[in-house]
Design brief:
It is built from 8 helices and 15 strands. The protein is an alpha/beta fold and 323 residues long. A 7-stranded mixed β-sheet has the order 5-2-1-6-7-8-9. Strands 10, 11, 12, 13, 14 and 15 form a 6-stranded antiparallel β-sheet that branches. A hairpin with a 6-residue loop joins strand 10 and strand 11. Helix 1 runs parallel beside helix 2, helix 1 runs parallel beside helix 6 and helix 5 packs antiparallel against helix 7. The longest helix has 25 residues.
């Protein structure tokens, strides 16, 4: 039983799912990949394939892109494969019971959090926004109730101070791929012990562009974590007024600066210090924040110091964004 390869229908969409597919394709028999339809992306709205489709096509695995996963014709196709497992990694939709019950053994999911914390579509971003020092991955049995299945395996990962949602997602995707292979090994050996989720759960809702507006009336720590959690998408932003016209500026990198003191009468959002070759320091409700990398609309990312020089911004300049 241990030497036999299990047949798997793999469901996923973004880059996060790719290491898991590559790993399973090496060790098991992935008979089909199910992903989201091709969609327009970017400012040019060019039609692009999901990253998982690109990887699956290179490997030579049949790809299905249903617009409705409940459609009888699609269900018939997947049922035809009679898979041992359905493996789901960031598919981007809730599975109906008609799909969950297809495999002969189990439907399982890789979720990038330590369940029951951060159930939902954006666990990596919210772990950073909330200032967590650890997160992890969970391999769970899929149930109708989203992210409430019994736990097969779970592994903790430290969040580094410089981690963004992008860098942390990459780490978790590779850790998750490793844990998936371990979980499938346990399934093949008949050694899985399903454990109910314990502790207080929390929800990680979908991230929207509107969530990125910086409120300088918050603490430096809260703003710093928002910047990390929304990098690389959709990005945290502030408003400034060149020539009295509002302009949105995205802020991509920041550092906490407890060593910078400013006058109490300064408004939150005030540039209180310009650090040569580093960036500019902004007053917040509590402590100061060094802004290191920014981006203007339609432009590439640049250092915050180059931005300051280009717009001749002086100490005392006030950025908008406080609610």
């Amino acid at each position: 039983m241990c030497e036999q390869k299990l047949s798997i229908v793999f469901m996923g969409t973004p880059r996060f799912a790719c290491p898991s597919l590559e790993k399973l394709a090496e060790q098991e028999k992935v008979v089909a990949v199910v992903t989201q339809p091709d969609r327009p992306v970017g400012r040019g709205k060019k039609i692009a394939s999901p990253p998982l489709k690109v990887v699956a096509s290179k490997i030579g695995i049949p790809v299905y892109q249903p617009r409705d996963i409940k459609a009888p014709a699609f269900l018939k196709e997947i049922t035809f494969f009679n898979p041992d497992l359905i493996v789901v990694v960031a598919f981007g939709g809730v599975l109906p019971e008609t799909i969950i019950e297809i495999p002969k053994i189990l439907s399982i999911n890789l979720h990038p959090s330590l369940l029951p914390k951060y159930r939902g579509p954006a666990p990596v971003a919210w772990a950073l926004i909330k200032g967590e020092t650890h997160t992890g991955v969970t391999i769970q049995k899929i149930r109708k109730e989203v992210d409430r299945g019994e736990i097969i395996l779970q592994k903790k990962l430290a969040i580094e101070p410089e981690d963004s949602c992008g860098t942390l997602s990459i780490k978790l995707s590779h850790l998750g791929a490793k844990m998936l292979t371990q979980a499938i090994k346990l399934i093949k050996e008949g050694k899985v012990k399903l454990k109910p989720q314990q502790g207080r759960g929390s929800y990680a809702p979908k991230i929207t562009k509107q969530m990125g507006k910086i409120n300088w009336g918050n603490s430096a720590w809260e703003i710093h974590n928002l910047v990390r959690g929304l990098n690389p998408s959709p990005g945290a932003y502030a408003i400034f007024f060149p020539k009295d016209k509002p302009c949105q500026i995205k802020i991509w990198k920041t550092n906490l600066r407890k060593d910078i003191l400013d006058r109490k009468e300064n408004t939150p959002g005030t540039v209180v210090k310009i650090k040569k070759e580093e960036g500019f320091v902004v007053k917040t409700a509590k402590e100061a924040l060094l802004v290191k990398e920014v981006q203007l609309p339609g432009k590439n990312r640049i250092s915050a110091y180059d931005f300051i020089k280009g717009y001749h911004i002086q100490e005392g300049f006030v950025l908008g964004g406080q609610n």
